[in-house]
Inverse folding.
């Protein structure tokens, strides 16, 4: 019986790590995609910075400099 | 432990984007241009539908919209219809953009302010498109914007579905 409780408790705890809860979903990025949310005012510079960041951090991108931050492509 | 893994895997499947062969998610949504005009997924059965979830702030959505106008131009709306579902917070933003690309209102546009459809489809990207066959089954899932090559593949699939 304790096993079942343990399982349910684990599920309850891990449910906080669910993708929809920990990640801003692409359809929720309306305000993040606005021009004023860009870190750099110059698009060319932002693109260069994004490129360097992508290489340095091996990150997946998706910031506002590429495709409006909406997660497209 | 096995039970835990099974439960986690089934929970993961529950939160995954629908696949080809799954049933479409039913909806009733108002028109983008006319709020009083409601369209339900039920009344679209019998046609091949390309359900496109888009927003005016999404640059990928803006890129593919002219391609959709050309695509709809090539097919009769009785057989194949593109249904655009706009998820902008401000309806007018969607209308303004769509009027600039599709002044003849060739594309059917609906409005989903609550983003209920992208939530239900659990869209991993914007735009997301779903090809739905005449019986309401999902025949294709396309995440991200279409380019010309992607559109050719889509057209082949539409022709295949219409030829059935």
């Amino acid at each position: 019986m304790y096993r079942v409780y343990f399982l349910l408790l684990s599920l309850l705890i891990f449910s906080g790590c669910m993708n929809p809860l920990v990640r801003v979903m692409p359809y929720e990025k309306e305000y993040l995609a606005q021009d004023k949310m860009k870190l750099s005012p110059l698009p060319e510079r932002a693109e260069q910075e994004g490129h360097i960041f992508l290489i340095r951090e091996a990150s997946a991108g998706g910031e506002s400099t590429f495709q409006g931050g909406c997660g497209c492509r | 432990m096995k039970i835990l893994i099974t439960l986690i895997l089934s929970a993961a499947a529950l939160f995954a984007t629908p696949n080809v062969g799954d049933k479409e998610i039913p909806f009733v949504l108002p028109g983008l241009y006319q709020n009083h005009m409601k369209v339900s997924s039920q009344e679209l059965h019998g046609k091949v539908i390309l359900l496109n979830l888009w927003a005016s702030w999404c640059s990928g959505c803006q890129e593919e919209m002219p391609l959709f106008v050309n695509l709809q131009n090539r097919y009769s709306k009785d057989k194949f219809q593109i249904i655009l579902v706009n998820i902008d917070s401000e309806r007018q933003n969607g209308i303004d953009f769509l009027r600039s690309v599709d002044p003849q209102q060739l594309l059917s546009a609906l409005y989903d302010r609550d983003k209920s459809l992208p939530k239900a489809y659990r869209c991993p990207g914007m735009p997301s498109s779903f090809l739905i066959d005449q019986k309401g089954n999902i025949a294709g899932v396309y995440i991200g914007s279409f380019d010309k090559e992607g559109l050719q593949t889509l057209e082949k699939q539409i022709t295949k579905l219409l030829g059935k």
